[in-house]
Structures are given as C-alpha cells and as structure tokens.
Amino acid sequence: MRLFPAYWLDANVLIQASKGPYRMERVPQFWTFIDEHLEQGNLRAPKMVYDELTDGNDHLAQWCKQRRKYLSVNASRDVQKCYRDIANWAHTNSTVAKAHEFLRGADGWVIAHAMEMGTSGIVVTQESTRPRQGKIRIPAV
Q: What structural domains does the chain harbor?
C-alpha cells in the first residue's frame, strides 16, 4: 500500500506550464521540482498522455522523451476495468459523439489510473469544472 498519493498528470498541465509562466528557460526550478517528483513516483502519466506530449519535436516533447520511464505508464488489468467503467459513464451521461471524442483521448486513462489507486490516486488537470459544449471534461467524470 502506498503511503503518499500519486498525482496523475493530464497533458495540459505540462503543456500549459511549458508555454506559460513556467517556461523551461524562465523557471528551471519548476522543471527540477517536476523531475524530482517523477523520480520519486509522486507524479505519473499514462502512456496516452506521453504519446500526446511527444507528438512533435518541440522542447517539451524532447524533455518528455527523456523521462519516458515516468511519463508512460501502461494500464494494468485493474486500470482497464476502471476505464471500462468510465467509458460506460461517458456513454450513459452524454451523446455518442461526445463519448467517442472523450474516449479517443488520454483523459479517460488519466482518470482510470487514479481511480484504480482509490484515495491515493489524484488527477491533476488544468480543465475547469465549467461545462463546455461538445466536450466531456475531466472534472465532470
């Protein structure tokens, strides 16, 4: 049993940090902090988040590729069961088109990994709780 929580990162957390006030060249201490917590296992990301972050050749993609070990966690059977529950929720609480759009991305996997851990799994996202037409958002799930 894990004593400390694991924070499961949505891609937008690192994307917005790297393009906004925490740019790597501006605040390297932030990225050192992220590195330390990745190595300690406090911060994690599902493989689909890694795939989103490394789809390109910018500075963030290169940084993430060097940290694949921490930012590309494969789904266990228990995580896959949680994802199935999330998929069922999406189809029950939304239109087919919105559910399919949501399930094409990594958001459901971020939630499933955290969900599988119970109270020691925490989702970290920049998405707001404000509903957005046409998209299922992480806080809604």
A: 6-135 (3.40.50)
